[in-house]
Amino acid sequence: MSRPRQSGFTLIEVLIAIAILATSAIALAVGYVNVLNGYEAARRATVNDPEMQFARAQLLNQPDVELARQGGEFEGNDGRRIRWTATIEPTNEADLFTVTFECEITGSGSLKPQGIRQVFRVLRPTWSVAADRSTLRAASRDRIVKILEGVNK
What we know:
Number of domains: 2
Number of strands: 4
């Protein structure tokens, strides 16, 4: 006499299903934690400090490159002292500069000074030397002519 087949899952099938579910849950949790860490890193990278923004505006509004390189210092809110400096280097393009902006905020009861360092490019014709500008523009013009000659062949 044959035994009737019983429907249902075996213990091994149930254990395999639980293992797959646990692995999926762990992968989702790790992904969620990575997203949260990414949001926190982006939040820290975005500076909303009005004094730092004002210091950067002072740099960008300075028409004289030598005065911009000297930096500046001013008194901020709540007795905070803000000091900024800039390293300004010309690029291979006319009137385009690479700026390393450093701002340090001290005071307001903080034990350690807050500092930020940003590197960005800025287009400032007033910072250029006329002779260098002419040379760079001529070099750019030559590069464009070579590119156009290569395209027209």
